[in-house]
Amino acid sequence: MTRRGGVLAVAATAWVLLGCAPSGPPSSGSDATPDRPPASDPDDPDRTGGSFAAVGDSITDADSRNFAAGEIGPASWAAYVVDAGVVFAGGWAEWGATTSRMADAAAAVDADTLVVLAGTNDVAFGIPFAETSANLERIVDAVGIDDVVVSSIPPMDAYPQGPVEFNEQLEEFSDERGWRFVDAAADLRTSDGTFRSGMSFDGLHPSEDGARMLGEAIADELVAG
What is each CA distance from 67 to 7, 166, 167, 175, 189, in whole angstroms? Predict the structure, then answer.
């Protein structure tokens, strides 16, 4: 299959999995979101890692009831950042969102650090990285937080090379802008760029175990400062 053919195949998959599946990943019970301490409560004594805002797509929103309000589901990496003691201050995430959509929707948040995990849908729909990078700058400008952590995107089993190439460009771009790049998806992928066993439920979105690994890697970066 040609590179263009791979992109188109993934785009078709993305339309089904991202655009038409807002209910999120399969859950193990009738209620996928466990009871958690208020994610935005800065007075919780167990939360000592500062605060963060997040902008993303379905990988961030996942099975959350209301991501922006801090009702975060266990299939979202953000849940494990909160569990690590970092206060969730707000943000925006939506299934199917490209970086352009994120940039249009992002708004100011008062937090110590902005975490951006974005680009899976851009890769799926063949959006040039030059457009993605401009959108990332718009996201950061809209949220208004100086300390920015940018995460690598997880694998795509139907098009393994896409995220590999994207993450290489993303790391270089982040370094140029003075943002902190973290390869949070490193432990989710195999040497050939696909998901490791158990790290995804559909070859595109992380499983709960995959989300935990993403979240723990991002939390380590936030706590380390």
Answer: 29, 26, 25, 28, 26
